[in-house]
Amino acid sequence: MSTFLSLTFSGLALGGIYFLAASGLTLIFGLMGILNFAQGLFMTLGAYAGYEIALRLPASPGAPMILILSTIGAILGGALAAGITEVLLIRPLYGRPLDQMLVTIGLDLAIVALLEGIFGSNEVAISVPLWVNGATYVGGVELPNAAFLALGAGVIVFVGLETFLRRTRYGIIIRAGVENRGMVSALGVNVGRAFTLVFVIGGAMAGLAGLLNTIAFNSDFVSPLQGDSLLIYSFIVVVIGGLGSIRGAAVAAVGIALLQLYTNYYIGSHPGWAQVGNFSVVLLLAIVLSVRPRGLFASVV
Amino acid sequence: MSWLRSRYRSAVVATVVFLALALLPFAGWHVPWILPGPVDILNSTGTLAALAICFVFAGVAVGYDLIFGFTGLLSLGQALFFGIGAYVFTITVTDWNWPFFPAVAVTIAVALVVALISGAVALRVPGIAFAMVTLAFAQAFYFAVESNPHNLTGGDSGLSLNDARLPFFAQGAVSNTPNLYWVALGFLFVSTMVVWMVTASETGHLLVAIRENERRLEVLGVRTYGYKLLSVVISSVIAAGGGIVYVLLIGTVLPSSVAATSVSISIVIMVVLGGAGTRWGALGGAMVYEYLQQYLNKVSSEPSFANLPAVLRVPISQPQFLLGALFIVFVIFVPGGFAGLYHRRKAKAIGAAGDDVARRTITGLFKKHAA
C-alpha cells in the first residue's frame, strides 16, 4: 500500500511536469495553429541554463540559493529562447502554419545537434542542494522531495495560467484568439503580440519543466536529448486533453503520468516488459482517439 | 498537350538518369574532393556503398511524398515502417533461418497490416493531430524494440543480419558492393515508378484533390477516407522495402538508426528540401540530404580537422546542425524546395506567372492545415 501511495505521489509529480510542457504546446496550438516542435528544445535549453548557473555558483551543498537561481535561469533561458525563435523564425512565416511547424522541427534538430557537439552526448550532472535528492516520510510512505517541487510547480502554474487567462486583458485576448483569431484581429487587436507572448510563456514553462524533470526524474542529469523524449509525452497529453484546452492538458497529464508509472511498476518488472509503461500511454492514445477523435475536452481554453 | 510533353520528357530523363546510375559501378574515374567515400574513385566500395544508402532513403522519401506532398497529410511516423522492414526481415532471416523471398514477403505483409491498422486509427483525427498520432505510434514501436521482448529485437544493441543463406546479390561482403548498389538502385527505381504511376492515375488525381480541398470532395460524394488510407498503405510498404534494403547494406539494425523519431523527421526534411508533391523533388532532396550527411561525416573525420578552432569544428562535426540550419533557410526563403527553384527560374525565362507552379505544392498543404 505504501508503495502504491508513493507511486501515486510520483505520478502526480510527473503529471506536473507533463502539464508544464504540454500547456505551452496546447496554448500555442490553440492560438497559432502550429505544433511547436521546439518546445522540446526549450526544455533542454532550460535544463542546460540551470546547469550552467549551478556550475558557476560556489559549491555549498544544502544551500537553497543554488536551486532558486538555477530555476530562475531555466525559466528565463526557456523564455528567451522561445522569444527569439518567435521573432526571428516564426514571425516571417505568419500565415504559413505548416512552414512555421517545419521551422521548429529544423530548429530542434539543429540546436540539439549543436548541444551534442558542445556538451558531448554524455549526460552532465547538475549540482543541487542535498535536500532535493532526499525523501520525506509521511506515515511510512516515502515521498521524494524533488517530486514536491515538480508537483508544486505544476499546481502553481495551472492556477496562475487559469487566472492569467481569465482575469487579465492579455489572457482574454489569448482566449478570444483561440476561439476566433480572425475576429480578434478584425477588432484591431495586435494578435502578433499575443503570439509572441504565448510563445514566451510556453518557453518559460518548458524551461521550468526541463529543469524539474532533470532533478525529479533524471537523477540530476542533463542531456541534449531529454527534451525531445519529454516532447512526445507532451504531444500525447495535448491530443488526449483536446488541442487548445488547458484543463484538458492538466487532466490528461496526470492521467498519463499515473498510468505510465503504475504499469511500469506492476507489469514492467517482468522480463521483456521494461517499456510497458511507455507503450501503454500510446495504447491509451489510440483508445481515446477511437472514441473521441477531438480529445477529452473541446478546444476552449 | 504540354502535360503529355512533360510526361514524355520525364520518361526520357528518368531513363537516362537511372541508366547512368546503373552503369556507375563500371566507371573507375578519379574524382577528387567531392565523393562521400574514403577513396576518391567513383566506383570504389566506399562511394558505391554511400550512394546505395542515398538510394534507400531517396526511395523511402519518394514513397513518403505520396502521403505528404500529394495527399497533404503530414505523417511523422514513417520510421515505424522503415523499422518494421529492417527488424522483421532481420528476425525472419537470422533467427528463423527463412530464405530470402519468403522473408521479404512476410516483412511486406506485416508492414501492410500494421499500416492498415495504424492508418485507420490515425486518419480519424484531423490535420495536425494526425502528425502527433503517427509520431506516437512510431515511438511505441521504438519502445517495443528497445524493450527486447523474448530476446527478439536485441534491445539497445540491436541485431545483426546473418546473410550466409541469402542469394548472392543480397550478400553484404565488400566484394559484393556493386550488387547491393544495384539492389538499392532497383528499390529506388521501383519506388519512383510506383509513385509516378499512382500520381498519374485517377486515384492520384483524387489524392491531390484531397490535398487541395477535401471538404469539396466529400460534398461531391467521394469517400476520401479510403483514398487517404490507400496512400498511407502504399508509402508504408515502400518504407518497409527501404528498411529491408537498408539492412542488406548495413548488416545491422539499431533502434536509434531505423526506428527513432529522428528517422521520420529526416524523411520529412528530405521531401521538403527537394520540393513536396513534385516529380523529382523528394528524390533529389533525399539524395542531397543523405549525401551531405555522409560527406560532412567524412570531412569531420579528416586528421587535419582537429586543428580547426572550436567555433568551426563543433558545428561542422555535427551534420545534423548544418542540415537543420539549411532546412530552416529553405523553409523560410525557398518555398517549394529545389523543385520550386527550378520552376521559378524556368518561369522567369519564359516570362509566365510560374511562381504559382513553385508555390502550388506548399500552398495546398498549409491551406489545409490552416483550416
Overall average pLDDT of chain A:
87
The biggest beta sheet of chain B, please?
2 strands, antiparallel
> Which residues of chain A sit in consecutive blocks of at least 5 with pLDDT less than 50?
none
Structural domain count of chain B: 1
Beta strand count of chain B: 2
State the end-to-end CA separation of chain B.
34 Å
Q: Which word captures the global form of chain B?
A: globular
Treating each run of at least 4 consecutive H or I residues as one helix, how many helices of chain B?
A: 15
**Quantity of strands of chain A, as a count:** 4
Strand content of chain A: under 5%
Low-confidence sequence ranges of chain B: 352-371
Q: Percent of residues of chain B in helical segments?
A: over 70%
- Protein chain pair with the most extensive contact, residues per chain: A-B, 50 and 51 residues
Query: How many domains, in number, for the residues of chain A?
Result: 1
